[in-house]
Structure formats: structure tokens, C-alpha cells
Specification:
The complex is a heterodimer of chains A (159) and B (400). With 159 residues, chain A is an alpha/beta fold. Chain A has 3 helices and 7 strands, in the order H-E-E-H-E-E-E-E-H-E. Classes of the chains: A alpha/beta (159), B alpha+beta (400). The interface between A and B is large, with 39 and 36 residues.
């Protein structure tokens, strides 16, 4: 796991705040926790200097008081770095990564619809994956969300 | 010339799953294309949080009708990593055999659909006839044509008996002969080549920046394949080539898939030849210790990603599924714009849609008589009406 150790070393050297926050779970699987304020610069460094050019997907998490996002980044040689960023549930704002990963568009829209993230800088477009008439403020992947049969969508308006 | 918006979908002839394309046309040329997804959102991830790990495996196997084994394997690989389970080598080999057979059936299915979309229906008929060979093989191994139910946490549920090896190898020989013929068609038949060339182009740079996966990306000269880059199951023991092509268009995507078929036959042969002896499953705990893992899997259409977070109970805290089609649909805009309206079905089909359900006669084995008889669709329909009538349910007047 020499390569993974090298990545960890250069990351902690570059960003002192990451000391002790990078975990190597097994060969080719690394995990890191990054502060939202540092995320942009860390991502930039990972892409440009460490070869993490693939964004596999983004996972949203409901962590009680907070919401989390995991950016699943990968290199051409198969090493994956899963970067977790945590923001408070009361103000779950993150910046879009579509400028560097245009393919992240649908992943970010999914976070908006299912967990209620607010994504700064995300271009207007169709929502995904919920219906256009989905009631506001209902985020199905939040832990406290329960299916309420009175929330009917897809009504056909009588003409 | 005036511009006109036309909606294509959500029920689209080229796709089994619904997706809506909003197309702005000038004459016959596509000026702008926007994709609206989500019609098939079933809340699977939420449902997974309310079920046990084993139940989730069966649920996730049903995310997709074609790459069902891909999703269940991808999910349990993550669960097994969190639980710290070491899978017996034989189980890994069996998983890989089924994975490659699934790829063969999916690629053959795609080739047939592609033939159909460009009006080459004899290719469609031939390919789908040959696809039955691999479907029968999957049915013999697992009991099912799709949704094989081979996996379980800690290994596989069914062994492949050595008595079946010669049949598997013979099927690979037959399919290889047939695929050589399809390669001849794909690389020599001018009407096929001309119809697909320079349609739905996607540059190498676009593939790289948009993180496009699978044969769609490899057809633009980007050699990304999880089986080689991040080996799982038995892929580390196999020798195979990652097929790429630099046509960057629908033609390239066809070439990559037919050549990948040849690699898949070779992989199945290697797996059968080197199949290790031993157990096929280890005991898995009901409660999975707290932890998280992410698993990648090269499904027939591209990289499948599953993330699992466990909280130490019988049910997962979070399950995330990223199917390859979601990654690839994002490039659809680029592939459709500046091409013609008539190219839309084949361009959409070129990222590999789901298409199943063939009308076929059903072979009925009458065990008591020891004879086999063929039942036509009409006879089967009459039989079912009669069967319901005997249960006291009258189906007359209901259109079946």
C-alpha cells in the first residue's frame, strides 16, 4: 500500500488540518474528512497534483444534527479517495463542483431533492429524481421522513 | 427556418425505462437537447434502510433487469468488506462466471437492439437467436434467465457442478464462432458502418471530464475498466485486454462491445479451467459491525458504484447506488446536439438501454408422461383463461 501511504503523506504535508483525518481502509480505498471551507482547495490539489480525475458519484448522508456529503473520487490506477464534508442541517449549503466535474450535475440535483442540500452555483435545469409537483420541504432520505399518504402527487387537473 | 420544441418520451421506443428528452429542432437538426429523468424513481435507497442486509441484496438485484447480478454483487462486496468476511475462492470464481455470462447476454442484446434501431432487423433476429444460448446457460446454472439469485452475503448460494463445465465451454465455442461473424459484419458491412459512423460523437476530452463509464467511454479511446484498474472477485487472476476504439461515435461503441464479447468468452474459459475446489460460502453475521465501504463493479454498461454505511445493527444506515446509465446520460446532450432527429434512437440506444421480454413459445415438460411438447402463445393464453375459470375467475371480456 505504498502509493496510498504516499498520497496520505503528501496530503497532510500540504494541508496540516488533515493530520489524522485520512484513513486507509484497504488497498485502493482511502477515506478523508475535510472542512467545508477547505474543500475547494483540497479538491483542486487532488485533481491537479494527485491524479484524482474521476468523480464516481456523490453520496448524501443524514447524520442527525448535520448533513454529510461523500465525494467518491478515483484515480486511473484504481485508488479511491472518499472525501466526506459535513455541513449543519440548519444551513446545508455547499458549492457546486460542476465547473470541474460537469458530470456531477445529476448527483447534485439528487442531493437537493432527496436530502435538502442547497447547492451554490448549480445551473438551472430539470429537477432529479422527484416529480415536478413534489411538495416543498419534504426530503425522503432524511431519517425523520416518513411516508405520509396525504402527500399525494401526480394529480390530474380537471379542465 | 423556425425552431420547434418536441418532447420525446417519457415512454420512449428505444428505452425500456422511461426518460424524457426535450429536443429543440431547427429543420431536422437538433439544436438543443435536455434530459429529464426520475420517472422510475422507486425510493430503493430509502427502502434499503428499512430492510435487513440480506433482504436488501434481493431488492438491489431488482434495480435493473439486465445487470441484476452486477448490482447484487456490487452491494454485497461492500457489505462483506464492512463485515470483514473473506470469501472462498470458488465463490469468487462462480460470481465472476455469472458476471461474464451476464455481460455476454447484455452485449448480445445490445447488438440486436442496435441492429433493430438502424433498420437491420436480420442482424437483430440472428443475434437474439444466439443470445438464447447464453440465456439457457444462465438458466441451467441459476434456475433463472434474469435475477439469478446466485449471491448471498459470504459467497454464493449455488455451486456450478463440474458436469456442467463441458456444456459451458461448448457454448463459448459456438458463441465465439457466431461473434466472429458479427465482427465481420460490424467491420465490413458498409450500410451498417455508414449508418453509425460520425453519429453521436463524444470526444476523448468530454469522456474524461464528464467521467463517462463503460463501453461508451472506451469507444472514445479512454481505457478505463474497473475489472483491470480496481480488480474484484476473480478478475485479478484473469488475463484479458481492455478493449478501446478511437472512432468516438456510435460505430466505435458497437465495435467495442463485439470485441468485448470475445474477451468475455476467453475469461469464462479461464475461469472454468482454473475453478478452485472448496466451499462456496462462509457464514455471515446477521448484524454487520459499524463501518463503511464503497464497492465498484464493471457492469456490462459501465462502472456500477455502491456505498454502504453500517451502524452495527441488522439494517444498513445508508445505501447508495450509482448505476452506470446515470453517469452516461449526462453526456447525452453532447451526443445529440448538432445531429439529426432520425439519429436520436440509435444514439440513445448506443449507451445501452434495457430491453427484454421476447415473445416466445414455452416448452412444457410433462413429467408424468416423460414427453416434451411445445405450447404456442395462443394455446398458453387459452390455458391461462381456462385455469382462471377453474379457480372461479372469469376473464372473459377482459383484454389480455
Amino acid at each position: 500500500m505504498a502509493k496510498e501511504e504516499e498520497i496520505r503523506e503528501s496530503l497532510t504535508k500540504q494541508f496540516g488540518a488533515l493530520e489524522g483525518k485520512i484513513r486507509i481502509q484497504r488497498a485502493r480505498r482511502m477515506w478523508a474528512e475535510v472542512e467545508p471551507s477547505d474543500f475547494e482547495t483540497v479538491l483542486d490539489y487532488l485533481r491537479k497534483s494527485q491524479g484524482f480525475v474521476i468523480l464516481c458519484t456523490m453520496t448524501g448522508l443524514d447524520k442527525g444534527e448535520n448533513l454529510g456529503i461523500i465525494y467518491h473520487l478515483a484515480r486511473e490506477d484504481g485508488i479511491m479517495l472518499n472525501v466526506e464534508v459535513t455541513v449543519p442541517k440548519t444551513n446545508p449549503v455547499i458549492k457546486t463542483v460542476t465547473a470541474v466535474f460537469p458530470g456531477a450535475d445529476h448527483y447534485e440535483r439528487e442531493l437537493v431533492d432527496l436530502l435538502g442540500f442547497k447547492i451554490e452555483g448549480l445551473a438551472p435545469g430539470f429537477r432529479y429524481p422527484l416529480t415536478d409537483d413534489w411538495p416543498e420541504g419534504q426530503y425522503p432520505l432524511r431519517k425523520d421522513w416518513k411516508l405520509d399518504p396525504s402527500l399525494k402527487t401526480g394529480k390530474i387537473e380537471e379542465s | 427556418m423556425g425552431k420547434v420544441f418536441i418532447p420525446i418520451g417519457p415512454q420512449h421506443p428505444a428505452l425500456k425505462e422511461p426518460a424524457s428528452f426535450r429536443i429543440l429542432l431547427e429543420g431536422e437538426k437538433v439544436i438543443e437537447a435536455n434530459v429529464r429523468l426520475g420517472y422510475n424513481h422507486r425510493g430503493v435507497e430509502k427502502a434499503c434502510e428499512e430492510r435487513s442486509y440480506l433482504q436488501d441484496m434481493y431488492l438491489l438485484e431488482r434495480v435493473c433487469g439486465i445487470c441484476s447480478h452486477s448490482h447484487s454483487t456490487c452491494f454485497i462486496q461492500a457489505v462483506e468488506e464492512v463485515a470483514g468476511l473473506e470469501i472462498p475462492p470458488r465463490a469468487n470464481y462462480i460470481r465472476t462466471v455469472v458476471a461474464e455470462l451476464e455481460r455476454i447476454h447484455s452485449h448480445l442484446l445490445w447488438l440486436g437492439v442496435a441492429g433493430h434501431e438502424v433498420g437491420f432487423d436480420s442482424l437483430f433476429m440472428y443475434v437474439w437467436r444466439d443470445r438464447e444460448i447464453v440465456m439457457d446457460l444462465l438458466a441451467k446454472i441459476s434456475g433463472n434467465r434474469v435475477n439469478y439469485g446466485m449471491n448471498t452475503i459470504g459467497g454464493v448460494r449455488r455451486d456450478i457442478s463440474p458436469g456442467l463445465y463441458p456444456e459451458i465451454l461448448k457454448a463459448m465455442d459456438v458463441l465465439e464462432e457466431r461473434t466472429k461473424y458479427y465482427i465481420q459484419i460490424a467491420t465490413g458491412e458498409m450500410s451498417f458502418i455508414k449508418r453509425l459512423s460520425n453519429v453521436g460523437r463524444l470526444s476523448k476530452e468530454d469522456v474524461e471530464t464528464m467521467c463517462i463509464v463503460g463501453p461508451t467511454g472506451r469507444a472514445s479511446g479512454v481505457p478505463r475498466d474497473v475489472r483491470r484498474d480496481d480488480p474484484y472477485a476473480a478478475y485479478g487472476d484473469l488475463s484479458f485486454k481492455v478493449i478501446t476504439d478511437d472512432h468516438c461515435d456510435v460505430y466505435g461503441r458497437a465495435v467495442v462491445r463485439v470485441l468485448e464479447l470475445m474477451e468475455a468468452y476467453s475469461m469464462v474459459r479461464q475461469l472454468i479451467k482454473n475453478m478452485p475446489e472448496g466451499p462456496i460460502v462462509v457464514k455471515a453475521p446477521r448484524k454487520i459491525p459499524a463501518g463503511e465501504a464503497v464497492s465498484r463493479y464493471e457492469a456490462p454498461r459501465g462502472e456500477d458504484v455502491h456505498y454502504v454505511r453500517s451502524n452495527g445493527t441488522e439494517k444498513p444506515e445508508r445505501v447508495k447506488v450509482r448505476a452506470p446509465t446515470l453517469a452516461n446520460l449526462q453526456a447525452m446532450k453532447k451526443m445529440l446536439e448538432n445531429y439529426y432527429l432520425a439519429d436520436i434512437p440509435i444514439v440513445i440506444a448506443a449507451i445501452d438501454p434495457c430491453f427484454s421480454c421476447t415473445d416466445r413459445t414455452i416448452e412444457v415438460n410433462r413429467l408424468e408422461k416423460g414427453t416434451t411438447e411445445l405450447m404456442s402463445w395462443d394455446a398458453l393464453r387459452a390455458y391461462s383463461i381456462d385455469w382462471y375459470a377453474r379457480q372461479g375467475i372469469q376473464l372473459k371480456g377482459i383484454r389480455l
